[in-house]
Amino acid sequence: MSGGEVSERNTLQGVKVLVIDDSNTIRRSAEIFLLQAGCTVILAEDGFDALAKIADHQPDLVFVDIMMPRLDGYQTCSLIKHNKVFRSIPVIMLSSKDGLFDRARGRIVGSEHYLTKPFTKDELLSAIETHIGR
């Protein structure tokens, strides 16, 4: 589809996205891609940090890494989905493994989508477009 980038920018303008990952590199990559698309970006280093930021910022969508210390991605997603205020926020799992088990476990805790790292800008933006209903 030609001109897709222009429509993505219009579609994603002002969308609030929370990126939870203990890797500074992944957080920064996602932030750059999302800012270029016009999103508002909130960053968190782990699940505990993220839960406070979800309450403060009420993002439209959450990307969460599976493998994190203290509170992993599955636990973080489960806590989001069991909260009546936040359960409607789409959660997209991020993993360096492209395993069937990881995908299935992500679905069980309520995630809407799964991306394998490293992800491309197009994969990141497509996942948002698919799940924010704009």
Give average pLDDT, whole number. Answer: 90
Main sheet strand line-up = 2-1-3-4-5
Give the biggest beta sheet: 5 strands, parallel
Compute the number of helices: 6
Q: Determine the N-to-C terminus distance.
A: 18 Å
Coarse morphology = globular
Number of beta-strand segments = 5
| Overall helicity | 40-55%
Structural class: alpha/beta
Give the radius of gyration.
14 Å
Uncertain segments are 1-9
Order of helices and strands: HEHEHEHEHEH
Task: Give an account of the 3D structure.
The protein is an alpha/beta fold and 134 residues long. It has helices at residues 4-12, 24-36, 47-57, 73-81, 100-108, 121-132, and strands at 16-20, 40-44, 61-65, 91-95, 113-116. Helix 3 packs parallel to helix 4. The radius of gyration is 14 Å and the shape is globular.
List strands and helices in order, with pairings.
Elements: H1 4-12, E1 16-20, H2 24-36, E2 40-44, H3 47-57, E3 61-65, H4 73-81, E4 91-95, H5 100-108, E5 113-116, H6 121-132
Parallel strand pairs: 1-2, 1-3, 3-4, 4-5
Helix pairs in contact: 3-4
Question: Which key terms come to mind for this protein?
Answer:
alpha/beta, five-stranded parallel beta sheet, 5 strands
Write a short abstract of this structure:
With 134 residues, the chain is α/β, with parallel strands linked by helices. It has helices spanning 4-12, 24-36, 47-57, 73-81, 100-108, 121-132; strands at 16-20, 40-44, 61-65, 91-95, 113-116.
